[in-house]
Amino acid sequence: MDPLAIVRDPLAAVRALHAARAADDDQEFGVKALFADPALRPQVPILTEDTAEHLPNQCLVRYCGMVADMLNPEYYVGEYRRPDGSWATAKFADQLDEAVPEGGETRIAERRPLLLVPVPAESGWAVAPHAAAARASLAALPAGGAAGAAGAGKRAREDGAPAGQAEEELSIGMMVSDATGQTAADDGDSAASRARRAGGAPAAQQQEASSGGSGTAAAAGADLPAGSCMVYLYDDAEVKLNDVVEVVGVLSRVPELAVAHMQQEQGGQAASMLLDDILASHLPTSLVPRLHAILLHPEASAAATVPAAAVADARARALGFLSQVLGGDDLAAEYLLLQLVGRVHHRTPQSAVGVMSLNLVAEPNTAAAAAAAPPAGVQPAQQAQQLSPLGAAVAAALEALAPRCRTLPLSIDALNRRPWWPRRDQNSQRLISGPLQLAANTQVLLDETVMAAGTLQEVGLRNMAALQTLMARQRVAYDFEYFSLDQPADAPVTVLSLGRSLLKETVDVTLPLHPTAPLADAAGVAAAAASADLAPLRAYLAAARCADFAIAPDVEEFLQQELAGARQKDREVNERTFHTWMNLARLQALSHGEASLTRERWAAMLEMEGRRRQRLQPAQPAA
Amino acid sequence: MASDGNAPQPSGSAGPAASPAPMSAARTASRSQQAAQTPGASVMQTPGSLGFNPSQQLGTGLRGVSSQPTPASMRRPDLGHYVGFRGPPASASRRTSLAPSESVPLSSNDMDADADQTYIWGTNLSVSRVQARFNAFVRTFKESGTDEEPKYMQLLQEVRARGEVSFNIDGHHMYTFDRTLYNWAVSYPIETVPIFDGQLSAIAAELENKDPEEIMLQSRIYNLRETKVIRDLNPGDINKLISVSGMVTRTSGVIPDQSLALFQCTQCGHEEMSWNDRGKVNEPTKCGNPACQAKFSMQMVYNRSLFLDKQLMKMQENPNEIPEGETPHTVSMFARQDLVDLAKPGDRITVTGVYKATGVRTNPRLRELKAVYKTYIDVVHIQKDEASSLFSMFAADSQSQEAEEALSQGERNIADAPNTQEQGLQHTSNMTREEMEAKRAEFRALAADPSIYERLSASIAPSIWQLEDVKKGVLCQLFGGVSKVLPGAKTRGEINVLLVGDPGVSKSQLLSYVHKLAPRGIYTSGKGSSAVGLTAYVTKDPETKEMVLESGALVLSDKGVCCIDEFDKMSDAARSMLHEVMEQQTISVAKAGIIATLNARTSVLASANPVGSRYNPQLSVVENIQLPPSLMSRFDLIYLLLDKANEATDRKLARHLISLYGNGVGRLGNEADIIPMDTLRDYIAFSRATCFPQLQPEAANALSQAYVEMRSMGMSRKIVSATPRQLESLIRLSEALARMRLCDVVTVQDVNEAVRLMKVAMQQSSIDPRTGQIDMDVIQTGVSAADRTMKAQLVGELRTMLTHKVGPSGMRLADVLDAINAQASVRVTERDLRLALNELEDIARVQQGMVTLVA
């Protein structure tokens, strides 16, 4: 079949396959095979926030995002029998071209709505090519399939629908009255209410346009980040929360959903309770377009292997870049580099192995501390969102190298302001995201230098506890009101602080900064990142992060001696030190592009740790 | 309304018959016609009342109307039958035939009794066959062969005697008696259940010699063979009877659900009734009075219409049923009549009901969207899985079990066992009765293991080797002794443990492990702890310029373990608060002019670093940690953890870590015996909630003997080796040891082990470094008996020396020290000297390092 025709009208292709299917009970009828055709993929336009308005309704699109919420499964008319006795499918669509015959036979099927959002905290360099590709893909779409034309066609259908028939059917309005114990008959002035209902439509659009930030707006999806998308899954594909996936599916816009939400706001408690889960997955499509997934791929791992020769060069450049940011502090740059290749590779019930939490300390009365001082003349209220110059610079550096980086100022105000952990709103039946809902491989930077004395409220305390769980166990507890569920995370945490961090109990590595040159500011870092070609560095980091790793038996023996011997020599060495050392040694080896641990790396790691300890000595003679 | 007053009122508490409930649609039509013709006969009781109790509301006298005595009322609003059973709607898509297993012979007279072969629409299932089989089930089912009377006949009489409507049928009973009947009930509940109701009424009527129409009974099937989780519901379950477990998250207010509407013509006053038919009430479009026939003149009279209670509930999956990486699913449910308000948000329930799906269009003007269904469960039966907390259940179990048995099973769904909430025990996930039974059995099996004590101590912080006795002490703390209330006094059951030792000896690790394990564990660092408060303060440490978090730990850990790291660095104010906590188990807070005494029944597990960070073997424990002796004496066990590197265990640990980082599989080596942390936590909580051991006479003797021995050890040398506080500690330790075995008596072995633990702890901490003897005085006053003698000697010597040697210009302190050391056998420190000089204030004064004599 002509790829362009499929892209323009995928439903026609699906229905043709359905009509031609071999067995009556075949639920799949070869759809995946058709759409998985590699020739098709380049033709499929990419759905993003920008391109959404240019894409016609019911065309085939690609969309990439993170699974932010998994809603209740939905039952729908999967198949219905036409008056002529043949079965028709209603898969991959919100609306049918033909009316389901009244009282006709239907088969109910199930589909799973997923809420996908653009990957949170994604760095600019990772987003840009995707956005460009999306714009380019739009150009490939022939002008004939423009949005206006498709929309007009649909409207004509609506108007053509016999009005009387529509009246009889159960609508949300009717369901509302059922739930509140009213019946159609008891409503003395039902005509008036009908008029109200009709009048509600423009008001809903207004409301949607202003999207006034209140609780009801949250129910209508105004709280979601721009570019979110409601994806329907039709098969049992394994998807987990916070997975990053690419979806190929049928775009669907239903302008009337905004009206439904408007009515819902007018209804009472019982009304919203009955339909809230349906409404949760039927958000106004102007905010959250709907996508009926035909294919679902996990995020492509970017890890093309980098040649060994290039590794050394890339590593040196990355170190140089980080060192420049940290005022020429090579040791700190080394640790920060290791942070960038960290990945959770094993979990035990109590801990996650593979990432460390790093605390970079700007010691009082040093240049670093001066850079970390909050900018003068800033109102405290503004400070909640504000980073110190040091924080901003490190954030800019991490963003330049890591694909995802979440920077959070750790101030009393910011901590108390709102929950950072995700929680389910039982009214809207949706998960309200928090800054700690992150995709795998996200760097977390906490800027504690902006902390001042003050009182932490309950929310603030729980935020702190959530951070500690993240650092210690790489898990985030999602709050479902009556219980919380721990979801795994993979997000190495770096803390910037003046003096040791508040979170020192969960910090693995504390390192005072000893800059030899003035620290860079955020603008300088951004400029440096823009001028240099960082692409090889990013490729190198991505490859190092995903590489396999093993310890040879003879090295194992050697390490045992080393560890036990170290403990004999220095009594302050304990299990936690062992953990840190093993982790650092592993990350060191990975950062050099090595797949196994050597004695040299181990020695280098010990030497690096020795230098770190030296820096800790004068400030903390014993701790 | 005037005619209403004269209408025949329902009589009798059970109410007169409900609707005649014809079997076929034709009959229904004829009945409603008759009803329409005799409007006066339909009666509202109290105008304005919306909710009725079930027996009242169903007695809405249609009695006079009934001309065909049919077996009973089949009105089941919970199944959508407001009027009476009518068969499924024509739009239903099911056309399958029933299960073929029709071979079970039926009692013939039942068959003949109703020759009317009415079939359930769309099936080959005849009403009379269902009736016959159900009849047989109720009349003959016995739970065990020895039962005298058929179980459900007995139950029926009880239900009738209590005047109740709900009649609970155990699905398992029905299945064992007649599989086909059970399958019918599960597959076609909307059709079969009303038939069951009719049969029940008929049987009751026969027993009581009454008109079946006067008897209202609703059969509620529960305990189905399969209980699903919400995740597993699928479209195939629609219109089936299902059983689902979950946790209630929200309930709506009570919604009046109209079952009968009374319309009155505004023109002539003619009245007409209209029943709610599958969720709809049809408004007559014109007046039924042949003389009037006015169009659109009928208006509903609200306070003469009938409303039933209805409630919308939301249920969410139980936490343990959610696969990792997914969010919980929810399901909506409608509860009606007596099921309203039975479950509250937070309850774990198992619901039996009919799974329904209704088409929804999200916009009234757009027909195509109707392709989506809203699903919900029409609830038939709610069973609370248990009280809100697992361990309150364990505790309350012994009481409620009797209550449970006293209650007939018929009441089980309403029986909301009195909730003796044992506050403070962990509110973890709660579970069903069966799961709890399994848990209980598991715990008993654990307790029966002869090596349970060793296994438990090995399971505490398995990654920390060595420290066996410390772990055992901590274990005792976790299990705790029994608090006793004596006339006029209370003794605490909580055991407090102090760990003193070098940095890097896993103290913090042990603490954080206990924190994770203990119910309501609180972990705090002594440096930043205030004793109370639910908020925390961030302050700047003036010395280090570090930010410090001050949190209120003690109140939060009521009935838990409060782990305080860096105990020695705790501020004096917070520490003084600990005095009260550790002995009285309360805490006094003065805030806004109110002094409140809060409970802080907490065990304290503290760790302290010695002064100067390393333990100085030359000094006593008290000198090493510099804690006030009054506080020290409140610890039952004080352990000294000195760092003795042990290469073998270090290697073991190293091997484990290397494998963890290499191929990702940890090798701890001793996993087989280790009890997983979750089990251990539950075991401890279970033991604390259910086991209250008492001292056996022999054990009491052993205890007093051991105590006397410990005291007499010191007697000969005039030092105290044991005090009454130690006796109390011994009792607590023995009780904790008995608890580990879930044993109700404290045995001599327990006492011996307690004494051993105490001695181990004392040996390490109360040894007077100068004499090598256990000396409780070291803990009690900070000064040992040897010290006391020496001090007296020193003062004497000093007095003589000062009077002889010090001239009018005085003498330098350092010179005095040298002089006294020259003649003393034991080295005298400057501190000792200053203390001695303080006692000699009458003759000498120290000023700026000079000792001068008082004139």
Keywords:
heterodimer, A: 623 residues, alpha/beta, Rossmann fold, 3 domains, five-stranded parallel β-sheet, 23 helices, 17% strand, disordered C terminus, B: 855 residues, mini-chromosome maintenance (MCM) complex, chain A, domain 1, 5 domains, five-stranded mixed barrel, elongated, helicase (chain B), MCM (chain B)
CATH architecture of the largest domain in chain A: 3-Layer(aba) Sandwich
Say what the CATH topology of the largest domain in chain A is. Answer: Rossmann fold
- Please describe the biggest sheet of chain A, giving its number of strands, its sense, and whether it closes into a barrel: 5 strands, mixed, barrel
Helix content of chain B: 25-40%
The quaternary state of the protein chains shown equals heterodimer
Number of helices of chain B: 26
CATH superfamily of the largest domain in chain B: P-loop containing nucleotide triphosphate hydrolases
Uncertain spans of chain B, ≥5 residues at pLDDT below 50?
1-74, 83-115, 362-369, 387-431, 530-535
Q: Briefly note the structural class of the backbone of chain A.
A: alpha/beta
Overall geometry of chain B: elongated
CA-based gyration radius of chain B = 39 Å
Euclidean distance between termini CA atoms of chain A: 72 Å
Which percent band covers the strand fraction of chain B?
15-25%
The overall pLDDT of chain A, averaged over residues, is: 76
Under CATH at level 1, the class of the largest domain in chain A stands as Alpha Beta
Please, what is the average pLDDT of chain B? 69
Q: How many domain units of chain B? A: 5
What fraction strand of chain A?
Answer: 15-25%
Total beta strands of chain A: 19
Strands of chain B, total number: 29
